[in-house]
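Data deposition worksheet. Section B asks for the primary sequence of the deposited chain exactly as it was used as input, without tags or linkers unless they were present during the calculation. Section C holds the resulting structure in token form. Section D is free text for depositor observations; keep each observation to a single sentence. Incomplete worksheets are returned to the depositor.
Section A, Depositor: J.P.
Section B:
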Amino acid sequence: MIKSANRKLDDSALELLAEMDRQIPVTLAGIEANRGQGVEDRARYGDLVKRLVRELGEREAASAHVSTVLLDQPTLAEVGTRMQRDASSHRELIARIESMSRGVPGVSLNAGQDIDTELSRLGQMLSTQIAWELDEAIPTVRLGLSEVDRADMFHSARYVRRHALTNIDPKAPRWRERARVVSWILSIVDHLKDYPTAAKRAG
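Section C:
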């Protein structure tokens, strides 16, 4: 019970996944509301898109870790399998949005490229997956594993945030996303980009 002894029991990757599932639709709604032509609208729009990229990276990292753990639990393996299948359907789209936003000033984000279409597609794709996770999958895991077991089996939310990458592989989680030291170094590279700064301005 080493992990649970050193942190709050509810501070797990599963709870981070639930948090991002609640937050991402809010961010997407904010992007939609700020899709204007004025300079302030475009600046706010850009900051929210960059914030979304960070949130998507954290959600993907939490989802990949949680689903991998669940595959080893006979009563929860089916939940883990569906989570991985759902993730494989949208990783390429997330990677494309990240690539379109990387290094581009927020105010110019939708100039010369149709990121709006990609964001709309992503929102539609994630809506069903997020509803299933919040209404069925996450409650099922909470019932199937005690709070102490979840703390022991899952990384902490803080760990996942620190190691989450924005530049994810479009096909499936690769070794660099799972390796403790490598993912941490790559996450620092991500943090040196404009995503965290923009996320703070959008907050």
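Section D:
Residues 1-7 have pLDDT under 50 and may be disordered.
Residues 9-202 form one domain.
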